[in-house]
Amino acid sequence: MGYTHYFPGLTATAEVLADARKIIATSSVTICGPDGHGLPILNETEGIRLNGFEAAGEAYETFPCAGPMSRSIRNCERSA
């Protein structure tokens, strides 16, 4: 059984992106791109897309947050 959390109205504006960068910089876990490797996507066109580190078994579902110029579903699924 999984868990899905929705973020209604959340858009990756410049302020949200700046906050996301601060959180990632101070995180004690490795935060990667949407496929569990590489760098997270953080821009107003694509929004925010990140995941855990796949090689360490920390990746699951991509966290998506649409940018103001994109359209995507804003949810995050987690396993129970």
Q: What does the model show?
A:
The chain has 80 residues and is α+β, with helices and mostly antiparallel strands. The chain has one domain. It contains 1 helix and 6 strands; from the N terminus they run βαβββββ. It has one helix spanning 14-26; strands spanning 2-6, 31-32, 41-43, 47-52, 63-65, 75-79. Strands 2, 3, 4 and 5 form a 4-stranded antiparallel β-sheet that branches. The protein has a two-stranded antiparallel ribbon with strand order 1-6. Strand 3 (41-43) and strand 4 form a beta hairpin. The N and C termini lie close together (6 Å).
Please give the structural blueprint.
Elements: E1 2-6, H1 14-26, E2 31-32, E3 41-43, E4 47-52, E5 63-65, E6 75-79
Antiparallel strand pairs: 1-6, 2-4, 3-4, 4-5
